[in-house]
Amino acid sequence: MSKLHFELLDKNQKECLVILTNFTKYGVLGGGTALMLQLAFRKSFDFDIFTPKPISKQFLYKVKEHFKSINITVNTSDELSFISLPQEVKVSFIYYPYKSLHKIIPSDYISVFNWYDIALDKAHTIGRRGVWRDYVDMYFILKSGFSLQEIIKQSVKKFGDSFSEKLFLSQLVYFKDLENFTIEFLDQKYLQKDIEKFLEEQVGRISLK
To answer: Which residue has the higher pLDDT, 83 or 209?
Structure first.
C-alpha cells in the first residue's frame, strides 16, 4: 500500500498541498488525510503536519510567507492551526515528540506517515476520548489487517505510560457521548451500528483471552 492516492484531493486541497512542499523539512503529514491517501475509504479535508520540535513564534512568519492569506484559529507552542484562504482548507502544524515505528513515505509534496503509525496515533487518541471519525478510522484499520493485539503492543512501545490498554479498549466500545460527524465514504456507505458491532466483537475477543 505504498501508493498515495493524491487524486482523492479536491482542487483546493491540491493547491494547499503544493504550498506544503515548502515545509517538507519541518514535519510529516499524518491524521485523517494521510490515512485517506493510503487506505482510501473516506474523505478527509484537513492537513495535519506533525513536527518534532515545538512551534516557534518565527515559524508563523514562514507560514505567512508561503500562504497568501490565513485565518489563525490556534497559535501556541504545541499547535499552529489556520484556515488557508481562498481555499478554505484547514492546516495544522502540531508538535509531536513521538518517534515513528514504521518507515515514513516520501512523496513529491510532503512526506507522509505510514498508515500503521497513524493507526497507533488513532489508538492513543481514542484512549483519551476521540470523535466518531476516529472510530470509523479504527474500523477500517482493523479491516485492513492490522490486528487489535498488534496495535496495542506497538502503541505501548511508541507512547509508553501515556497509552493505557485498559482505557483504549473501554473507550473503543463506549459510544454514548460521541459526536456523530457526517462521514463521506468513498466507495459505499457504512452503518454506524455495523461499525459499533464490529468494534465490540474485536474487543470481546481480546477480553476473552
So the answer is: 83
